[in-house]
Amino acid sequence: MSEENRRQPNVDEENGHDDSGGHASAYEHEYGLLGQITVLSFTADPPRVAPFETTTLSWSVRLPPTLQSVSLTVGGQTNLGSAGSVTVAPLSTTFYGIIAHGAVARRPARRAREGSGK
């Protein structure tokens, strides 16, 4: 009998969840939740500046209700709320985004699709 056949599934496996790699499944779960964050708006004012001049990045995101803990990084600053702004002074051509961090995973937040209602 092979090792695969002798291994007994745990309770979570029987319910469709493999918890044999506890950290991996926690990561995958949280990574999935972070993927449900919707960027409602993300703007720079002014949208173009010369090097070392300042612009204000403003954002608003919708968080999934089941996401326990999240912080956002925008313009190099972390632990920001689901809506706000931060002033930055880029040194050269720079593209900014929103990175969502949970307890064990992180991923870029995605902009809502036009007309999707999400």
What would your notes on this structure say?
18% of the residues lie in helices and 33% in strands. It is of the alpha+beta class. It has one domain: S-adenosyl-L-methionine-dependent methyltransferases (Single Sheet), CATH 2.20.130. Strands 5-2-1-8 form a four-stranded mixed β-sheet, with no helix packed on it. It has a four-stranded antiparallel β-sheet with strand order 4-3-6-7, with helices on one face. Strand 3 and strand 4 (77-80) form a beta hairpin. The radius of gyration is 20 Å and the shape is elongated.
By CATH, the topology is: S-adenosyl-L-methionine-dependent methyltransferases
- What count of helical segments does DSSP give? 3
Question: What fraction strand?
Answer: 25-35%
First-last Cα distance? 50 Å
Residues in helix, %: 10-25%
| Strand elements, count | 8
Q: What composes the largest sheet?
A: 4 strands, mixed
Helix-strand category: alpha+beta
Radius of gyration using CA atoms only:
20 Å
SSE arrangement:
Layout: H1 3-6, H2 11-14, H3 22-34, E1 38-45, E2 55-62, E3 71-74, E4 77-80, E5 83-88, E6 98-101, E7 106-108, E8 110-111
Parallel strand pairs: 1-8
Antiparallel strand pairs: 1-2, 2-5, 3-4, 3-6, 6-7
Concise overview:
With 118 residues, the chain is an alpha+beta fold.
List keywords for this structure.
about 120 residues; alpha+beta; S-adenosyl-L-methionine-dependent methyltransferases; four-stranded mixed beta sheet; four-stranded antiparallel beta sheet; about 35% strand; disordered N terminus; disordered C terminus
